[in-house]
Design brief:
binds adenosine-5'-triphosphate, alpha/beta, four-stranded antiparallel sheet, binds magnesium ion, 2 domains, 10 strands, 8 helices, Rossmann fold, six-stranded mixed sheet
Length: 240
């Protein structure tokens, strides 16, 4: 469902973040990306959903070639989860989730929070999936870090995306909350067949929840293995 061929990304300042990435991800897979700070993990996710232009290579997603003409379609079919949750603090959980239905072209509507009843029901269902129905009308700044990230996930899944991109979704959480978030992603992966591509720093969590681990070092893929085949040699080079 996702095929990345010789993907390259060089920023305007000359910094080369991706140096020829080849990666194929099947529908329903849970793949984690490991790699040191600055290796290109965030850039990779951002190129997949069109937040960054690419400098070379090709990306095919659900049989669509990603480019200027297909970005809206790709963004409709992908959900994104962030390390810092990116919620609007003074809004309720449900309104934060509803913003997941807005494309960038009608973002101004969000100023008025004019949503239909059917959309609100969808938002409540998403909050129920992440176990937060009882917090639907709490302001997001009244929630714990782990709960905020669950709102972030509810927002990402409200459109029923084919692909969820998660950029270090548990980096600011304690181990218990981190496990809860990853088991939730695993549940979404299994129940809805959502493909998951997740940047992680914690090797043990990546091994526990993923079908495949991909190591990136200096903009290149360094290993691509099943969790049971990951060895010290794989990890030594990326975490020295
Ligand atoms: N907007 C940008 N302009 C210029 N260079 C950038 C930009 N974004 C990222 N880079 C550079 O690209 C490289 C990869 O960055 P990226 O954020 O993808 O790394 P990362 O693996 O996500 O790191 P971390 O684990 O710290 O989040 C780095 O050298 C970074 O400095
Ligand atoms: Mg990053």
């Amino acid at each position: 469902m996702l095929e990345i061929i010789n993907l390259k990304k060089t920023f305007k300042n000359g910094s080369s973040a991706l140096k020829g990435i080849n990666l194929k991800i099947n529908k329903g897979e849970f793949v984690s990306i490991l790699g040191p700070s600055g290796s290109g993990k965030t850039t990779l996710l951002r190129t997949i959903n069109g937040l960054e232009n690419i400098s070379g290579g090709e990306i095919y997603f659900d049989n669509i070639k990603i480019g200027h003409n297909s970005i809206l379609e790709v963004q409709k079919k992908t959900g994104m989860i962030f390390q810092e949750f990116n919620l609007v603090n003074n809004l309720s959980a449900i309104n934060n989730v509803l913003t997941g239905l807005l494309s960038s072209s009608n973002k101004f509507l969000s100023l008025f929070y004019l949503f239909k009843k059917s959309q609100k029901i969808k938002a409540l269902k998403s909050l129920e999936t992440v176990g937060l129905l009882n917090k639907s009308y709490n302001r997001s700044d009244e929630l714990s870090g782990g709960q905020r990230q669950r709102v972030g996930i509810a927002r990402a899944i409200i459109k029923k995306p084919l692909l969820l991109l998660a950029d270090e979704p548990v980096a600011s959480l304690d181990p218990k909350a981190a496990n809860l978030i990853l088991s939730l992603l695993k549940k979404i992966n299994k129940e809805f067949g959502t493909t998951i591509l997740c940047n992680l720093h914690q090797v043990d969590l990546a091994k526990k929840y993923s079908d495949r681990l991909v190591g990136i070092l200096d903009g290149k893929i360094f290993f691509d293995e099943k969790p049971q085949n990951i060895n010290k040699n794989n990890l030594k080079k990326i975490y020295i």
